[in-house]
């Protein structure tokens, strides 16, 4: 049985028996939010002004991703309406970098490989994480 004693205000303490509330208490883990390299298979289709497929280009692209864990906690609270104070943090990008990627495997609508200059490759813009950090969940004001 875990017991927590919190000071609410000067001289007033609250004693909670966490076992009886069914709450599991554990030490906060280390933050491991990192910017990691990964590879994705990218497919881009190009259509004419009438909506007909002109070509499909694809390729394996090396991009960064955010991955890891951040310190989050839930603790009992007599101040919040739910009775718990939740502090949730998520691993997200802190800065996005724009890159131009070239897809070199292009095919016509019949699946034939395109070899003509100008149609055998396609450049696309891609935004990827340059840095990742822990942010308060739901906070999109970066």
- SSE pattern, N- to C-terminal: EEHEEEEEEE
Which term fits the overall shape?
Answer: elongated
CATH architectural grouping:
Ribbon
Work out the count of structural domains: 1
Mean pLDDT: 81
- Quaternary state of the chains: single chain
How would you write the strand order of the largest sheet? 3-4-8
The count of β-strands is 9
So what's the CATH class?
A: Mainly Beta
Q: What percentage of residues falls in helices of 4 or more residues?
A: under 10%
Class from secondary-structure proportions:
mainly beta
Main beta sheet: strand number and arrangement?
Answer: 3 strands, antiparallel
So how many helices?
1
CATH fold type: Cystine Knot Cytokines, subunit B
The portion of residues forming beta strands comes to: over 45%
The unreliable regions are 1-28
Textual characterization of the structure:
- It comes from Cryptolaemus montrouzieri.
- InterPro entries: Bursicon_suB (IPR034441), Cystine-knot_cytokine (IPR029034).
- This is Partner of bursicon.
- Residues 1-26 form the signal peptide.
- Keywords: Signal.
- It is a single chain.
- The protein has one helix at residues 18-21, and strands spanning 3-9, 12-17, 34-47, 53-67, 73-76, 84-87, 89-103, 105-107, 122-136.
- The chain has a single domain (34-136), classed as Cystine Knot Cytokines, subunit B.
- Mean pLDDT is 81; it is low at 1-28.
- It contains 1 helix and 9 strands.
- 3% of the residues lie in helices and 58% in strands.
- The protein has 142 residues and is mainly β.
- Strands 3-4-8 form a 3-stranded antiparallel sheet, with no helix packed on it. The protein has a two-stranded antiparallel sheet with strand order 1-2.
